[in-house]
Amino acid sequence: MGSKKFLLGIFGDEDILLNGVPQIREKGIKIHDVFTPFPIHGLDTVMGLRESKLHIGGFIYGITGTSIALGFITWANTFDWRVNFGGKPFWALPAYIPITFELTVLCASAGMVATFMYLCRLAPGVQKHIMDLRQTDDKMVVAIEVDEHSDEASITNILKQSGAEEVNTKVIEDWYKYKLG
Amino acid sequence: MSFKESSLREPLVEGNKSYGDVTHDITNSIFGKPTKEWYIVFGISVALLLYGMFCVTYFVYYGIGTWGSNKTVGWAWDITNFVWWIGIGHAGTLISAILLLFRQKWRTGVNRAAEAMTIFAVMCAGVFPVLHMGRVWMGFFILPYPNTRGPLWPNFVSPLLWDVFAISTYFSVSLMFWYTGLIPDIATIRDKAKKIWQQKFYGVLSFGWTGSAKHWQRHESLSLVLAGLSTPLVLSVHTIVSFDFATSVIPGWHTTIFPPYFVAGAVFSGFAMVQTLMLMTRKLLRLEEYITLSHIDSMNRIITLTGSIVGCAYLTELFTAWYSGSLYEQYAFMNRALGPYWWSYWGMMLCNVVSPQLFWSKKLRTSVFWTFFISIVVNIGMWFERFVIIVTSLHRDYLPSSWSMFSPTWVDIGFYLGTFGLFFTLYLLFAKYFPVVAVAEIKHVLKVTGNTPNREADLKQILDKEASVDAA
Hints:
The structure holds two protein chains of two kinds.
Chain A: E1 4-11, H1 14-26, E2 33-35, H2 43-47, H3 54-80, H4 93-119, E3 128-129, E4 140-146, H5 152-161, E5 166-172, E6 179-180
Helix pairs in contact in A: 3-4
Chain B: H1 19-31, H2 36-62, H3 77-88, H4 90-101, H5 107-132, H6 159-192, H7 196-205, H8 213-246, H9 258-284, H10 293-324, H11 327-338, H12 342-354, H13 362-365, H14 368-394, H15 410-433, H16 439-449, H17 453-471
Helix pairs in contact in B: 1-16, 2-15, 3-5, 3-9, 3-14, 4-5, 4-8, 4-9, 5-6, 5-9, 5-15, 6-7, 6-8, 8-9, 9-10, 9-14, 10-11, 10-12, 11-12, 12-14
């Protein structure tokens, strides 16, 4: 046990893939994932993926940065250690803007990148199962998980009909060792 | 693809490439042994870097007196070189962020290398202010950390501290933006690699990227937001650098035009450096089909635009100095143009104002030789600009008794050469071991902007139609 079996529909063209994916889904076949060498606009929609909410995270991280910067500088300059610069106000908001802005951008970017890495389970040295080595080169791979109850012949047929150049079988032994996708 | 581009536009990828060709052409040089030219240039760069490190060690041991800076010219080559390198570091983020938001597809050919250049240039820039602190081991004093001196906080209303935040944010964000873009391309190399060490090395660096649809969706979302964040960031960085001068009360520095003028100058010099590097890279790595003359043309247009803005700023400064009625201000500018450092002023005018105007000619704009030549001239000119602003504004103080001149010592020169060594060492390592052109992004636009048979047929149809209209 511990092995998973996939049927891989190999596509060579993004337009054929975009037409093919809805056809596969219409037949009631669940697509495990589609692996592509470059981003294909519209693929997430035809696969029925939810929209990414990453940008909302970015906003929250950004606001956090703004608050930290404004709050800390305000506290340091008006409460903790007042320094009189020629009678100018202690709370000099315009002069706080540059650091506030920089910290907003820094927190938003760093937070979003960290969230992205976490959601996609990306980190230095992480290993994952690769369905087909060409999926980072020139082919798009539609992976469909099959078990003993699935009708592999008809799935193969549907993949071919929706434009797959070839259909391969991939058995992943000890699939739990690494991440899938 | 959901959009179609006019076939009348010049293709951005020449030579009817398939996706496989793109991967092969760009990643092939990574797997082979470096060429002889690469070893020679790399050797020179490492030698410069080692000499620079020797000068830094000498400087740290003996102190800041080993520089040519003196009581009157307290800021000289260090800050000149700092601003120069930071300016160069502006093109990368401009290309990757602002041009992404403007949907300029030609950026895909040059963005990766330009971003790498940005990161290396910012590293070179950082060397100068950090070491100018003198006691560099006390450098952490600039950070707001709870300390035993009160706690005494850094001066949050000082432009010098804003600079600390601006430069470090800029470096971090550029690095993250660059690396997240690089991850899918490193995965491509990992899956192409034959040697075990290459599979391992790129395997670790690829972070386990597979190209899953959901990951691409998040990747796209991330890139867009990072671009949106980097756009004001890149403008803010040089604005804040210019505040170092503009918020002072030195004649010639205390001008409100500085922020836009510095930003335009930064983009100007940054693109010049991108041209210098890209022309060499495309030649050495045989990437002429990806970094085409049309890319070079586009960048030269930006050089002409920003060069003209810089030229306008120089003239505005002169006019404002005269119009202000302030004797000190007027003298500062008279001294720049006609004083002992007249050669740097006119060198700057010639290199920055006159030379980019040559690019109004399409022939020069699309000529590799002229582009390379002018890119070098602009780099020199922008260095002169910073030298003019800094040294000529300082060397004649309010008190004639404290007037002085500045000349660099061998340590000053060694520092500058050392940063060249650092920059080119890193760039050469990057160009050899990483994809200099964004593989996935090129594939993404290949069907729209590549020179495919479809496009050629389309173009023929349009031209035939025009010919028949003309005939009628």
